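Case study 2.
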Amino acid sequence: MSPPKIDSYQFGQISIDGQSYTKDVIVLPDRVISNWWREQGHSLSVVDLQEVLTTPPQVLIIGTGANGRMRVPRKTLVPLKKANIHIIKLESQEACLRYNEIREVSNVALAIHLTC
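Prediction:
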């Protein structure tokens, strides 16, 4: 089975394998977790990424929003790095492009904030 492919992204909406989502999502190599919500809204914590940590990918791309407003505190990155996960933080449009570029060649996950 091929990893999910992002068809398109625009502010507030993402299409993955023909399915449209209007709430933040996590894309794992074998599935999409819809309606992803963070404990602290615009600040990412390690608790928000438990699904990612259960079967750690080689790479986690974090889409920080159309304007990069979702913060990723250093303390969130520590357990990810301890799990040997390479982190890439990008504004959401760029995060989608990067994810699609490497999804077939790397075990990659995407955690993406769709708005601000």
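Residues 81 and 87 are 8 Å apart (CA to CA).
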